[in-house]
Amino acid sequence: MPEVPPCDESDAEAAEVEVDVVNSHGLHARPAHQVVVAANQFACSVAVFKDDFEVDAKSIMSLMMLAAEKGTRLRIRAEGQGAADAVAAISELFRSGFGED
User: Which residues make Cβ contacts (< 8 Å) with residue 60, sequence separation at least 6?
Assistant: First the structure.
């Protein structure tokens, strides 16, 4: 895997979006892995929120702790270089149902 360049705080940006879990089995291991792979392509930090519970989108174990079933509303927030692109890539995974349905 190529090395991700460090985040330059002077170029800090932030992006946030709400998404719904639309695939029938929710955020189980395979979709969570897709989120982790997408998040790790960016130098910025990426968090996923379920209500007031925040987890690191670059950790599959953290994402699994959300227990996000179909219909769950989540918020994705990225901070740092590439934040908008990271949020766009991850929100597209959710919108597409992770290719499951």
Answer: 29, 32, 33, 36
Residue 48: enclosing H or E segment and its boundaries?
strand 45-50
In tens, the pLDDT along 20-64 reads: 999 999 999 999 999 999 999 999 999 999 999 999 999 999 999
Given 25, 28, 58, 70, the catalytic residue: 28
- 25 tagged catalytic: no
Task: Report the C-alpha dihedral over residues 40, 74, 83, 9, rounded to 10 degrees.
Answer: -90
Taking the model in full, what pTM does it have?
A: 0.86
Q: Which fold has domain 9-99?
A: Histidine-containing Protein; Chain: A; (3.30.1340)
